Recover the amino acids of this structure.
């Protein structure tokens, strides 16, 4: 069965970076794009970007263009999302999601990132 | 960027009642590239509907998606206790992928 297992919660200081992982299993890792979506406390869903696990190509939302880096390690079926220069309003749950023809058919459980001094 | 506006913000209904949720797009969602997700507190979103009207695997037939162009609807024919949640629409016509702000279906 398809599973996306994310890394644990993080607490970071403003200005620091965070790297969230999302280990995929139960399907051919290189066959599906992975997207990252975040959700601030009590707020809606915000798309951040995608990575093509096969080629490593990425596409980022303009809002995050200069602060986010999405990578992957195909040897362990794991994509990563790195967000730098963290601010308090980056406090959110970060989800990875598998794309099937545009929509997201499987989601990870989410990783809470708290940015606080 | 396609902006999605969901209405109402909150829907207060009783179990057994019918729920009608709206999602309006700022421009045409070509090929009906619109999905609906359900999210319960502390959980990740779950795919309900894709292609505007196709139920995802395992989704009960009380959930129906309809619409085209700029106006889409999610209907829950008879609310079950487990259906009280927040629902989001999402377009995947082009980048950036965008979501509506959500409709909360709460118990009246």
């Amino acid at each position: 069965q398809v599973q996306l297992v994310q890394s644990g919660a993080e607490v970071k200081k403003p200005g620091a970076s965070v790297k969230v992982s999302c280990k995929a299993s139960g399907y051919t890792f290189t066959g599906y794009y992975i997207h990252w979506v975040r959700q601030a406390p009590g707020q809606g869903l915000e798309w951040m970007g995608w990575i093509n696990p096969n080629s490593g190509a990425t596409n980022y939302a303009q809002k995050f263009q200069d602060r986010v880096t999405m990578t992957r390690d195909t040897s362990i079926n794991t994509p990563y999302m790195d967000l730098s220069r963290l601010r308090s309003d980056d406090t959110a749950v970060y989800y990875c999601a598998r794309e099937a023809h545009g929509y997201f058919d499987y989601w990870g459980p989410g990783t809470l990132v708290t940015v606080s001094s | 960027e396609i902006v999605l506006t969901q209405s109402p913000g909150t829907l207060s209904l009783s179990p057994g009642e019918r729920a009608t949720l709206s999602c309006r797009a700022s421009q045409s969602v070509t090929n009906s590239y619109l999905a609906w997700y359900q999210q319960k507190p502390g959980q990740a979103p779950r795919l309900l509907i894709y292609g505007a009207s196709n139920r995802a695997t395992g989704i009960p037939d009380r959930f129906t998606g309809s619409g085209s162009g700029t106006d889409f609807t999610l209907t829950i024919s008879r609310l079950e206790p487990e259906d009280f949640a927040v629902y989001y629409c999402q377009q995947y016509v082009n980048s950036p992928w965008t979501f509506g702000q959500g409709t909360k279906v709460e118990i009246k």
